[in-house]
Specification:
Length: 92
């Protein structure tokens, strides 16, 4: 099953969430309004400026995890603080 790597930026707070999902990215992120991952429970999806982008699709879970790690490293020194802490939040 393919894995989608995606980014969600909270411009208001200056935070970035990077995730991996088996779902369509739009469906996964839409679920955050009601059931956000623990790392972003403090985000206000109705009142803060939030941008989402689908980055890459992988057939291999290991490749997705390696890419995820590279994206997390790429945030070092950027204007956004990385807040991701779970690779496969919807792995079930």
């Amino acid at each position: 099953m393919s894995r989608n790597v995606y980014q969600v930026f909270n411009v208001t707070l200056g935070e970035a969430y990077i995730g991996i999902t088996k779902q369509f990215v739009r469906d996964r992120v839409a679920s955050f309004r009601e059931h956000p991952p623990p790392a972003i429970e403090h985000w206000d999806f109705r009142g803060e400026i939030i941008h989402t982008s689908s980055i890459e699709n992988f057939e291999d879970e290991c490749d997705a995890a390696l890419y995820y790690g590279g994206l997390m490293k790429s945030l070092r020194g950027s204007a956004f603080k990385p807040v991701s802490n779970d690779l496969f939040g919807d792995a079930s």
